[in-house]
Specification:
heterodimer; A: mainly alpha; B: mainly alpha; 2 domains; extended
Chain lengths: 253, 119
């Protein structure tokens, strides 16, 4: 019976995922209305609930994919996977005004290299403070502070140990989770309420999952602007990390 | 027909992602460079073509509109499949590096946006 159910759920994974996410949304909007009296947006609570369940599932299964590691919920991995994520992000560009993009185009584009260098610098300083001395290892931690993809890509090409690589992935995951959770809380203070600041924010943060999750919880209309710049960040980080930034860090030490 | 909108959206996404993939490969990277951004620009350009406006109220537009309304649920599913356990249990150095990088970037947002607003 339970074997049959698992196989059945696996064959209909995407449908199970729709029901699962729908249930999270119902709970989140109920909490938003009653527990938070409308002060915290339902989508922010839904994302936080998703992260919380993912934590609990990771502790329980020991896997890397949150709830998607339960065979019954494997469909979450499809719905929340890169294909649907990218498809949905692109769809948010529908209704974007060309003028808004052009207005903040230059500073939005500049914010990407500034964000990449800033993250590497902060990550490298933290690595130094924790007693790392090898420039390749310091660069890898800095890369992880950029995004959890830049970390392992940089680490692999600099040939550091797998322990340092997993630390850099963890740093990137901390950033992604924190950006998702904290963005709606600080949005007003950092003036994140218009397309121009959303483009700057996307370029500075760079973690696509963090940025798109954070903006969804803040104001869904800003999503396309932040997503547009953040999508160039990981590529630039992978380009600069093992080359220019590594050379700079090596020459500074 | 709504499927025309969905097909347009999927085609833009595919072309953009593949272009980003090729761009990454040309730079010698194992990463997609700006694929989603290219796809978004493509969609914006195609839906703003003069003479054939594709509004959300048109049948084809509703096909695209549907997916942008599904955006938040998809992000919730993405959140639910993150490796949060590894993030939380990754050790102090990873946590400090991730938190510090995030705070520094948050702090810089108003500084750079002020530049953007300057005429």
């Amino acid at each position: 019976m339970s074997e049959r159910l698992v196989k059945f759920a696996g064959d209909n994974g995407l449908l199970v995922a729709f029901v699962f996410v729908g249930a999270i949304m119902v709970v989140a909007y109920w909490l938003s209305r009653h527990a938070a009296r409308g002060k915290v947006h339902g989508s922010a609570i839904a994302i936080a609930l998703g992260l919380l369940i993912a934590f609990w599932a990771g502790a329980d299964t020991g896997g890397k994919n949150g709830v998607a590691d339960y065979p019954l919920l494997a469909g979450i991995g499809v719905l929340g996977g890169n294909m649907f994520r990218d498809f949905a992000i692109v769809s948010t560009a529908f209704g974007v005004r060309m003028d808004d993009l052009r207005k903040a185009g230059l500073i939005g584009a500049l914010s990407v290299p500034i964000g990449v260098i800033l993250s590497f610098a902060v990550g490298a300083v933290v690595a130094l403070a924790f007693g790392l001395t090898d420039p390749a290892e310091i660069t890898t931690i800095g890369a992880g502070a950029a995004t959890y993809i830049v970390g392992p890509v940089t680490g692999a090409s600099l040939g550091v140990s797998s322990q340092i690589i997993s630390l850099s992935i963890a740093a990137g995951l901390v950033k992604a989770v924190l950006v998702m959770v904290a963005t709606p809380l600080v949005a007003r203070r950092i003036g994140l309420d218009n397309p121009a600041s959303a483009m700057v924010y996307g370029g500075l943060m760079g973690t696509t999952s963090g940025v798109t999750g954070g903006l969804a919880a803040t104001d869904p209309r800003l999503v396309p602007y932040g997503a547009m710049t953040s999508t160039f960040y990981t590529g630039l980080g992978c380009l600069l990390g093992p080359s220019l930034i590594y050379l700079v860090i090596r020459s500074l030490l | 027909m709504p499927i025309l909108g969905v097909a347009l959206l999927a085609a833009c996404t595919l072309v953009g992602l593949f272009a980003g993939d090729l761009l990454g490969a040309a730079l010698g990277l194992e990463a997609n460079v700006g694929g989603v951004g290219i796809a978004m620009l493509l969609l914006i350009a195609l839906t703003n073509l003069p003479g054939r406006r594709l509004g959300p109220e048109t049948p084809a537009g509703s096909g695209v509109q549907f997916w942008s309304l599904m955006y938040i649920p998809i992000i919730v599913a993405m959140a639910a499949k993150q490796n949060v356990f590894a993030a939380v249990s990754g050790g102090v150095m990873a946590a400090v590096a991730g938190v510090a990088a995030t705070l520094a970037a948050f702090a810089l947002v108003p500084v750079l946006s002020r530049w953007a607003q300057r005429p």
